[in-house]
UniProtKB/TrEMBL annotation:
InterPro entries: AAA+_ATPase, AAA_22, ExeA_AAA_ATPase_DNA-bind, P-loop_NTPase. This is AAA family ATPase. PANTHER family: GENERAL SECRETION PATHWAY PROTEIN A-RELATED, PHOSPHORIBULOKINASE _ URIDINE KINASE FAMILY. Residues 40-191 form the AAA+ ATPase domain. It comes from Metallumcola ferriviriculae. One of its GO terms (molecular function) is ATP hydrolysis activity. SUPFAM superfamilies: P-loop containing nucleoside triphosphate hydrolases.
Length: 263
């Protein structure tokens, strides 16, 4: 298929270099807030519906952090518990982990403070799929941030989850955690114009010699996906395959509609 369309690489895949990711207005705003969070050792709540690119935007920025000044750890575990969290962090940082929960917490606090005060590095911890956390894990977040009688934080904490997480944190017994979140952002979908720019961007990075998707095809893709990047990738890649099977060099509205009917 690549030879047929004159492409160098496969477009519309999630296996893309972070330097080549399309940056929408929503992504720019999220990135600015994330940079501010990391620089000032704050707590950032990034939410959005599935497929909006929340994890991608965090990954694209944190992979560029100066390793001389930051240590970045990403955890994606919907069944994460406090005990599993402490064990995971301690093991990743090479600290022999105690079997006693209270000692594990002490080890974690010592590790974070030593890294910040002695090693002069800011730990950046990202917890993905946070909307699936149990209330016990959500409540534990308060203690992940409690250092020196709750007077400072040596680390930046990023919570990523679906929109429902915002409401989960509004219940009364989680108010203390909600109050500790200094930075928030809700990721939005691409606009109609951004959807076209996104598709053209994919054509460009795959080194396609000319535009493959017709304006009508892009309009049909936007109407169906409503600008959700993951849905755009799926529909566009399948429409591209359909055009290839039909032996046609341009992806038209008919190819998109045929895929929509199959979906």
């Amino acid at each position: 298929m690549l030879d047929f369309f004159g492409m160098k690489t496969v477009p519309f895949t999630r296996e893309i270099d972070t330097n080549q990711c399309f940056v929408s207005l929503s992504h720019k705003e999220a990135k600015a807030r994330l940079e501010y969070t990391v620089k000032n050792r704050l707590v950032f709540l990034l939410t959005g519906e599935p497929g909006m690119g929340k994890t991608t935007i965090v990954r694209s920025l944190l992979h560029k952090l100066d390793t001389m000044h930051y240590r970045y750890e990403y955890i994606c575990d919907s069944s994460l518990t406090p005990k599993l969290f402490y064990r995971e962090i301690l093991e990743r940082f090479g600290v022999p982990c105690s079997t006693r929960p209270t000692e594990m917490k002490r080890q974690y606090r010592t590790l974070m403070l030593d890294m910040y005060e002695q090693d002069k590095k800011v730990p950046v911890i990202v917890l993905d799929e946070a909307h699936r956390f149990s209330e016990t894990m959500l409540e534990e977040i308060r203690f992940l941030l409690n250092f020196k009688e709750d007077s400072m934080s040596p680390l930046a904490l990023v919570l990523i989850g679906q929109t429902t997480l915002r409401n989960q944190l509004k219940v009364r017994h989680l108010e203390a955690i909600d109050q500790r979140i200094q930075v928030r952002f809700q990721m939005g979908a691409l606009s109609e114009k951004e959807t076209e720019e996104f598709i053209r961007h994919q054509e460009k990075i795959s080194e396609t010699p000319s535009d493959i998707f017709s304006g009508e095809a892009i309009q049909a893709i936007y109407n169906y996906t409503q600008g959700v990047p993951r849905k755009i990738n799926t529909l566009a890649s399948q429409a591209l395959l359909d055009a290839y099977i039909q032996g046609e060099k341009i992806v038209g509205e008919a190819h998109v509609n045929r895929v929509i009917n199959e979906l």
